[in-house]
Known about the structure:
By secondary structure, this protein is mainly beta. It has one helix at about 1-5, and strands spanning about 15-20, 40-45, 50, 60, 70, 75-80, 85-90, 95-99.
Amino acid sequence: MSSLRKLIPLGNRILIKKSEPVLKTAGGIYLPDSGKNTQTEGEVVAVGPGARNHEGNIIPVSVAVGDKVLLPEYGGSILKLGEDEFHLYRDEEILGKFH
């Protein structure tokens, strides 16, 4: 985890640790692959400063460290840091955040 503390995404990129997929319902029923949600959730662990607009001003990313976000099924770049796997997305690829 110490290497994660040294990694700061550039531009409007966001580093996310994906949540484990739900394999069993609250009632104890195991879900088949066809019943699993293709959209995933994750937690923001690091954010870049934002992207520059045509005037050179920085527009900050729309999420903050600790936010729970909804991610698309595909996209992002996979990063392995030690035993952990993280995903790097651009701000506009994030589908939404949970409150």
